[in-house]
Write a sequence for this structure.
């Protein structure tokens, strides 16, 4: 990066000349107010708030007022932020914006973390001179997640720019003009975008606020907060979770340049409510009855002393908890707790990333790819933030048009005028239409096997030494050649795939394309989505899948089965799970929500959710990230690994005595499993950093909160595992990026305080972004092309291949129990191609009988013209089908008819 | 272009729209003229008009409404048969535009953007209609009436009520 010298109030400062003055001033730590600008959205110069005075040269004493966000930080630029005239100008702009603002801060949810409040204080506008009526609006109902309060609007346009231009939503827009401009939907209704929750943070004031927070409201300054990791998909977005009075109140984005940047999806933002769900297990249960902690430990110890224990881990539990169970049961008796096929697919993905030359990119690198091929994934519903990043990636290639005209990247409106509808190459091959299809160069909808064949054909078109796909149709040959050319011609090509199709061919084909690109000298990236928040980490433990547990139970005497944070009935058909459970004498389950597995257990221990635990998750990039306890549960809830440790010590086991706290445990894991060698580096150990307060310095009621129980102020709970303290008092010394409990700086109370924590605005956090990559591609070229290319899919007469259709709300186990999200779940349905639906006499909205293996169901029919022939879709993860391991063939019959032995057609 | 099978417009207007969308580098540029012509034919921009125009331009209905709500000359409710538009912008104001407006309100018994019960007249206060030389002025549908006095307005409105007025489309 070249450096330019500019003069700010006569002080020479070194800045990035590719940026605008607002960006560089904020990067240098100046307080310059702004509204319409956002680092992820660029500059439009609409609000006139960031005015500075620019001077021609040293002799120029007059200067002119310019908008900092619209002026490049060119070499030699002289500006003044403190000039009295420009200070008065900025105060005047605020005064204008505040004219219609309701001044309802005391009753506004945004109060105390409002960018408008901060900027008003910053400019010094204090006195209101306007004494007439203010314009008012009728608010809209926008669904259970986002609240609308239009009177507070200051017309910065950021909501619509984010929602439409950045996130590709269609149902939010600006209406009317002048002082009556209205941001909303055409009529009341749930916002359709999967990213609507970001409006809460994008809006500089309280027009859009978190509707789930309203049910249990608390000011930001009253929240006890800690850095955490989202558990609702495999991307590992960084979040800040906040607690008060023992309940989790809300989740906001925690900036991590490499992972989630500024945004979260609605599942990640609003899924937290599962922690307070009515299914929550807060006390031990022995034989289905509430028990005390000592009774539970006694029973557990007695069972353990009988020996013959096997453990089933979980892809939604932390590495630490999985490892603790592995240590307790012994590596040979620890199983991964995922279905065989899924386990094989995830291992295949990890192996492809480790053994091959293609690197798994961070999400920031995903966004900066200039040609992308998505194979078999419905990203918006499986890994939503990756879909949001890809939506920006199609702007990379056309950005060269703007660069050619010397239009800087941040000059948003000019760039969009130049680029118009031009989009960079993004190809999507998926079993059904996805929400990203609207920006795709070309799409292909086919059965998983056919998708894999297209993938292998692309690899062959890139590198002729890759195996050829025989009997490929000419159209697909052409398409493969087109995609191959686009990927080869790119500077940063990317292939995305994952386990959603449950098809090994799809995964190998994606690897094959990336490897072929690497072989011809292209720096290809390969990103696999992961089904759950710690699928990657569990795969690195290389534990055998669930069926091996069943085999063990059948082949040797097993007394006790310990299940860690896992509902086995989601992992295998009910009859298999039942036979596994019948094969053991004792079933012990550690989990946080009640489910069929905990119902069957002899002993249930209340495990901490992400909010009550410390632990590490490995995301789809292979990045290990640590989450920290937000609240100290007053009940028996604690980390699973701590339960397991306590009981094994109580039972007299020696193996686990060595570790008492999180730092000991991570050090032990690093020593025992080579893949986790870097685990202790994920966050600094407790001893290395001074105390960091989880509570803001304005936290209220500390001495009075528990006065109804005792008037004596109790000693704050101690945290043995991290430097974070359940207190308002921080030690001196800087806070490492992985331990920042919340973003706040003097004068910056809103989320935009993150400006003060970044090395450069929109860049890495100071000290580096949190997280450590555990895998890197192999440097040796020992890999070989896959040669097992599946044959073309042939639809079977009278049978349909049933594939999972993913839903952002519903397909994930935990968020389904969040109060807000639970109102948005789809009803169970069967999706069919209309052309084929008529064959079985099915109509949209009607019902149909479906025979899966030996079970019959009746389901509502949804017609989807994008489904390939011979393929039917079932919503993934929705009960009662969550135990059925798709894909498999099913038979269909109209309601009222019986299945014959050979099907119905 | 998305094929529109049952257009709600007359064959002439439908043909005009078919041509209009071919005139611009991007189709959505035809949005404002289409809204105006559709309003002239239908009388106002109904939900059906929004739907068909969105279809013709490959836009979301919301995008059409975004533009529609911005322009004060586009209306989403029916006007009277004769839409009386009285200018109160600066030249007309100085020459008595507000008296003319008040006179119209009293005579027709309706206010700004309202329609008489017999749906014959609607009244609007509008910005400059480009007739400053002959202020105060008003427009009835597309016909201009200048150098107005209350008596002259009475005459004009009576003529329209009796069906004698000029109805320029």
């Amino acid at each position: 990066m070249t450096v330019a010298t500019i003069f700010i109030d006569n002080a020479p400062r070194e800045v990035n000349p590719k940026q605008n003055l607002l960006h560089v001033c904020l990067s240098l730590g100046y307080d310059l107010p702004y509204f319409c600008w956002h680092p992820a959205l660029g500059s439009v110069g609409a609000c006139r708030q960031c005015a500075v005075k620019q001077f021609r040269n040293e002799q120029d004493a007059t200067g002119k007022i310019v908008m900092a966000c619209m002026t490049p930080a060119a070499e030699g630029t002289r500006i003044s932020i403190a000039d009295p005239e420009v200070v008065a100008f900025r105060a005047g702009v605020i005064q204008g914006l505040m004219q219609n603002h309701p001044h309802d801060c005391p009753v506004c949810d945004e109060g105390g973390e409002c960018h408008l409040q901060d900027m008003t204080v910053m400019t010094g506008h204090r006195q209101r001179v306007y004494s007439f009526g203010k314009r008012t609006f009728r608010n809209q109902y926008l669904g259970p997640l986002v609240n609308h309060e239009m009177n507070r609007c200051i017309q910065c346009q950021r909501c619509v720019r984010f929602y439409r231009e950045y996130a590709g939503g269609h149902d939010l827009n600006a209406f009317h003009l002048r002082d009556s401009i209205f941001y909303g939907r055409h009529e009341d209704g749930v916002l359709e975008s999967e990213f609507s929750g970001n409006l809460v943070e994008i809006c500089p004031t309280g027009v859009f606020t978190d509707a789930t927070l309203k049910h249990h409201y608390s000011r930001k300054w009253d929240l006890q907060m800690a850095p955490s990791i989202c558990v609702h998909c495999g991307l590992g977005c960084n979040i800040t979770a906040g607690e008060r009075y023992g309940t989790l109140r809300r989740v906001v984005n925690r900036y991590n340049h490499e992972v989630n940047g500024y945004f979260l999806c609605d599942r990640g933002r609003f899924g937290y409510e599962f922690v307070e769900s009515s299914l929550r297990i807060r006390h031990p249960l022995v034989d289905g009855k509430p028990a005390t902690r000592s009774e539970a430990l006694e029973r557990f110890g007695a069972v353990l002393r009988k020996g013959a224990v096997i453990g089933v881990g979980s892809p939604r539990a932390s590495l630490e908890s999985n490892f603790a169970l592995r240590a307790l049961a012994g590596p040979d008796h620890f199983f991964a707790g995922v279905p065989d096929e899924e386990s094989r697919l995830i291992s295949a993905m990890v192996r492809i990333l480790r053994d091959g030359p293609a690197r798994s990119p961070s999400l920031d690198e995903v966004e900066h790819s200039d040609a992308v091929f998505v194979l078999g994934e419905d990203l918006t519903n499986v890994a939503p933030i990756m879909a949001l990043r890809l939506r920006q990636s199609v702007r990379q290639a056309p950005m060269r048009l703007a660069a050619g005209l010397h239009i800087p990247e941040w000059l948003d409106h000019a760039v969009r005028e130049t680029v118009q509808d031009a989009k960079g190459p993004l190809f999507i091959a998926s079993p059904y239409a996805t929400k990203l299809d609207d920006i795709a160069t070309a799409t292909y909808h086919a059965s998983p096997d056919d998708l894999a064949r297209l993938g292998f054909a692309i690899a062959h078109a890139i590198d002729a030494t890759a195996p050829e796909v025989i009997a490929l149709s000419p159209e697909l040959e052409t398409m493969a050649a087109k995609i191959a050319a686009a990927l080869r011609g790119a500077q940063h090509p990317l292939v995305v795939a994952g386990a959603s199709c449950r098809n090994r061919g799809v995964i190998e084909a994606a690897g094959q394309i990336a490897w072929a690109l690497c072989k011809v000298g292209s720096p290809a990236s390969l990103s696999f989505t992961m089904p759950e928040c710690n699928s990657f980490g569990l795969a690195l433990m290389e534990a055998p899948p669930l069926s091996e547990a069943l085999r063990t139970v059948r082949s040797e005497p097993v007394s006790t089965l310990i299940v860690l944070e896992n509902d086995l009935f989601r992992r295998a058909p009910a009859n298999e799970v039942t036979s596994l459970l019948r094969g053991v004498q004792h079933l012990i389950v550690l989990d946080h929500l009640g489910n069929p597995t905990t119902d069957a257990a002899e002993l249930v221990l209340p495990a901490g959710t992400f909010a009550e635990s410390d632990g590490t998750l490995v995301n789809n990039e292979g990045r290990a990230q640590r989450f920290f306890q937000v609240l100290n549960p007053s009940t028996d809830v604690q980390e699973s690994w701590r339960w397991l440790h306590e009981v094994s010590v109580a039972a007299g086991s020696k193996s686990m005595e060595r570790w008492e706290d999180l730092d000991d445990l991570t050090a032990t894991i690093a020593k025992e499993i080579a893949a986790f060698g870097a685990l202790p580096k994920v966050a600094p150990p407790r001893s290395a950093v001074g105390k960091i307060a989880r509570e803001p310095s304005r936290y209220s009621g500390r001495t009075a909160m528990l006065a109804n129980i005792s008037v004596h102020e109790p000693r704050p709970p101690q945290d043995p595992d991290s430097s974070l303290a359940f207190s308002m008092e921080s030690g001196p010394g800087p806070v490492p990026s992985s331990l920042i409990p919340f973003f706040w700086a003097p004068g910056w109370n809103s989320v935009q305080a993150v400006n003060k924590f970044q090395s450069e605005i929109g860049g890495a956090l100071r000290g580096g972004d949190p997280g450590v990559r555990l895998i890197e591609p192999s440097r040796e070229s020992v890999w070989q092309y896959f040669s097992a290319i599946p044959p073309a899919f042939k639809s079977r007469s009278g049978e349909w291949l049933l594939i999972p259709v993913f839903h952002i709300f519903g397909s994930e186990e935990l968020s389904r129990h969040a109060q807000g999200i639970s109102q948005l779940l789809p009803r169970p349905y069967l999706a069919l191609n209309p052309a084929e639906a008529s064959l079985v006499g099915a109509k949209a909205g009607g019902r149909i009988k479906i025979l899966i293996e030996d079970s019959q169901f009746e389901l509502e029919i949804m017609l989807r013209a994008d489904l390939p022939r011979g393929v039917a879709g079932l919503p993934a993860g929705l009960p009662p089908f969550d135990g059925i391991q798709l894909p498999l063939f099913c038979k269909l019959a109209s309601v009222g008819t019986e299945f014959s032995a050979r099907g119905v057609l | 272009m998305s094929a529109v099978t049952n257009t709600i417009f007359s064959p002439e207007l439908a043909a005009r729209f078919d041509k209009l969308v071919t005139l611009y580098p991007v189709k959505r540029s035809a949005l404002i003229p289409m809204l105006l012509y559709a309003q002239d034919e239908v009388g106002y921009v109904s939900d059906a008009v929004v739907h068909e125009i969105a279809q013709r331009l490959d836009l979301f209905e919301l995008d059409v409404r975004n533009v529609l709500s911005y322009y004060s000359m586009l209306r989403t409710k029916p006007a009277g048969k004769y839409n009386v538009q009285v200018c109160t912008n600066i030249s007309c104001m100085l020459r008595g535009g507000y008296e003319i407006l008040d006179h119209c309100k009293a005579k027709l018994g309706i206010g700004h953007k309202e329609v008489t019960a017999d749906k014959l007249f609607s009244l609007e206060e509008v910005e400059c209609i480009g007739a400053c030389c002959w202020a105060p002025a008003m427009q009835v549908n597309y016909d201009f009436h200048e150098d107005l006095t209350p008596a002259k307005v009475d005459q004009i409105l009576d003529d329209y009520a009796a069906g004698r007025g000029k109805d320029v489309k």
